[in-house]
Amino acid sequence: MPFEYKIDKQGNIIFCHFTGSLDDQSLLASFSQFYSDPEFEPYTIQCIDYTQVSEVTVTRQGIKDLVTLCEQLGPGKLRGKICIVASDDLMFGYSRMYQMLCETVNQDISVSRTLEEALKLLDLKTETYPFLIGRSQQHKSESQHKGS
Description:
This protein is an alpha/beta fold. It has helices at residues 24-35, 60-72, 89-101, 115-121, 130-147; strands at residues 3-8, 13-22, 45-56, 82-85, 109-112.
């Protein structure tokens, strides 16, 4: 599972981008990695992008384990807005499950189908992060092309 993230200290945002296949172990490992990054701050806005995940083998238990990981950070440790982007129905459903289970850890979690919508939910200007939109449009184009 390719995974990358970028912490923009000036913009106070962490952008996490997942591609390829995603399972419980890689999901937990990726969140552990960026939550332990010394640059990560609890008030950081998070944009978690699953739009280019091609195979999902995440389970309900994996989502519950992710919530446990967040709870281990301590109450109030995740205070920034979080927006999860999931165009796939299964990942969208798991993202909503995560949102509901995380109410005790962070109540400011949104789930959207597109990066454009996510940026609006996070009060970010589209022109500030044009590479996000480009990736989303590229993925849509590739998906449409594969289906023809």
